[in-house]
C-alpha cells in the first residue's frame, strides 16, 4: 500500500512531468472506482494541470480549480506513460487498469499521461472529481500531517494523552495522524524501540519525544530516498528501505535478533523482540490457534 513517502514522491513526479499540460481526456474502465458524479469526470478535458498536492495518502491533481483526487488503497498504483498516442482504447474488464489520464503533447509530439492500476480482487482504489479537496470525506477527516511544521512533540503528546488504543493502531488511524500505514508504523516503532502493543496513553514525556523523532525522521528519510525516482521505481525503493516490515525471519540490522510477526485477519505487523519488547515475543493469536 502506498503511504505518505510514496504518495509524496508521486506528487513530486507529477509536478515535474504533468504541471503545465492540458488534460486531453480521462478514460475510466473501473467504474466502481469513481466515487463522484458532479462535476463529471468529462469536465476535466481541456483544463490545465496547475498543481499537485498530497493530503495524507490522497494524491490531488489540480486542474484549473477542479481536483482529480485519488486514493490508491492497498493494491493501487500510478503508472506514468511517456506516450499514450498508440495506447489501446480503454475497455471495462477484469484487468488492472482502472483509469487513464491523457495529457497534451509536448514539443517532441509525444502525448504522455498516467494510468491508475489496481492489483488483486479487493477493488478499493478511489477517484474523486471535486471543486474542493475537502469535499472528499477521507480528506475532510484527516488528522495532522506528520511532516508539517506544526506537528510538534507537544501536539503528539496531546494526541496520545489519555488514549487507550495500542500505539500501532493509533499511528495507522488516519483521523489521528495522516499518512502513516501498516509498513511505516512498524518502521517508526522499531526506531522508537517501542512495542506495537503499548497503550498510547501510558507514554512518558520522554517516550513521546522519542516517538515524535522516530515518526519525523523515518518519514523524511523515506521521502528523501524516493525523491527524484521514476514512479515505476518507487515500490522497489520502499521495500529495500524497510528494516522490519515484511522481513519476518530475517536478522534485525540493529541487534541481530530474529524479526517476528503478529498476524491478523487481513494484515500483519513485524517487530524486533530485542529492540522493542525486552526480548519477549508478542502473542500471535492466529499462530496459537494453528498450534492447538
Automatic annotation (TrEMBL):
Q: Taxonomically, which superkingdom?
A: Bacteria
Q: Where does the Formamidopyrimidine-DNA glycosylase catalytic domain lie?
A: 2-93
What Gene3D superfamilies does the entry give? 1.10.8.50, MutM-like, N-terminal
What cofactors does this protein use?
Zn(2+)
Q: Which reaction does it catalyse?
A: Hydrolysis of DNA containing ring-opened 7-methylguanine residues, releasing 2,6-diamino-4-hydroxy-5-(N-methyl)formamidopyrimidine
What family is this protein classified in?
Answer: Belongs to the FPG family.
- What this protein is called in its record is DNA-(Apurinic or apyrimidinic site) lyase /Formamidopyrimidine-DNA glycosylase
The GO terms describing molecular function are: 8-oxo-7,8-dihydroguanine DNA N-glycosylase activity; damaged DNA binding; DNA-(apurinic or apyrimidinic site) endonuclease activity; lyase activity; zinc ion binding
Keywords attached to this Swiss-Prot or TrEMBL record, sorted alphabetically, are: DNA damage, DNA repair, DNA-binding, Glycosidase, Hydrolase, Lyase, Metal-binding, Multifunctional enzyme, Zinc, Zinc-finger
PROSITE patterns, alphabetically? Answer: FPG_CAT (PS51068), ZF_FPG_2 (PS51066)
Q: Which Pfam families match?
A: Fapy_DNA_glyco, H2TH, zf-FPG_IleRS
> Which organism was this protein described from?
Microbispora rosea
| Domain spans labelled FPG-type | 243-277
The answer to whether the entry has keyword Metal-binding is: yes
GO terms of biological process kind: base-excision repair
